[in-house]
Amino acid sequence: MRLLSMWVCVLVGVACLGLSVWFYPRASHPPGVVVDQPTRVGLRYPMGARTVSFALRNPHATAGRIVGACEVCETSQAYCQFRLLTPLPVDLPPGAEHVVECELVLRKPGRFVGELHLYVSANGSQELTFHVEGEVDPLGE
Fold first, then answer.
1. pLDDT beyond 80 at 47
2. Mean pLDDT score of the chain
3. In the chain, which ranges are E strands?
4. What PROSITE patterns does the entry give (predicted)?
5. By CB neighbour count within 10 A (0-12 exposed, 13-18 middle, 19+ buried), where does 25 fall?
6. Which CATH class is domain 34-137?
7. 3-state secondary structure of 106
8. What is the full DSSP assignment across 115-136?
9. 126 backbone dihedrals φ, ψ, rounded to 5°
10. pLDDT value at 124 more than 90
11. Contact (CB, 8 A) for 39 and 128
12. Which residues does 1 contact at the CB level (< 8 Å), separation at least 6?
């Protein structure tokens, strides 16, 4: 009986060691790209077009790549358009920073919400969301 208990302890120890080796790289190197200030809320803009920039960082030792994008404006297209200006695909070398530029076009006064979804392959798959929300100033101030 004592021999069986010893073997069970050894097997449990080996299993725990195996799990810790398997989980450690995933815990210490989370997937993805880091975005500085992905949400801009409470903005007040005049009507017209402007460029909105977002800074991306690839903190990993492996290269990444922005492979696709999807643009959404919650008001009708007559009021708001939020689109990617940066040509795709974009390579993200290890440790590099990259600025993604978007165009925000506001055509009528009122509230607007724009979102841009980027699809990134960097240490795994990831979807990044850039969110811009605010009010169109009818006086252009």
1. yes
2. 75
3. 34-36, 39-46, 48-57, 64-73, 80-84, 90-92, 97-106, 110-121, 125-137
4. PROKAR_LIPOPROTEIN
5. exposed
6. mainly beta
7. strand
8. EEEEEEESSSEEEEEEEEEEEE
9. -155, 145
10. no
11. no
12. none
Q: Compute CA 100 distance to the chain's CA centroid, rounded to the nearest angstrom.
A: 11
For 8, 15, 16, 19, 89, the CA distances from 11, given in Å and listed in that order, are 5, 6, 9, 12, 48
Higher pLDDT, residue 117 or 32: 117
Using the predicted structure, report yes or no on whether residue 75 has a pLDDT greater than 90. Answer: no
Instruction: Note the maximum CA span of the chain.
Output: 86
Residue 56 burial (C-beta neighbours within 10 Å; 0-12, 13-18, 19+)? buried
User: Residue 46: how many CA atoms within 13 Å on its side-chain side?
Assistant: 4
Query: Is 109 within 8 Å of 137 (Cβ atoms)?
Result: yes
What would the pLDDT profile of 7-24 be if each residue is shown by its tens digit? Answer: 434 343 333 334 333 333
Of 20 and 131, the structure prediction assigns the larger pLDDT to 131
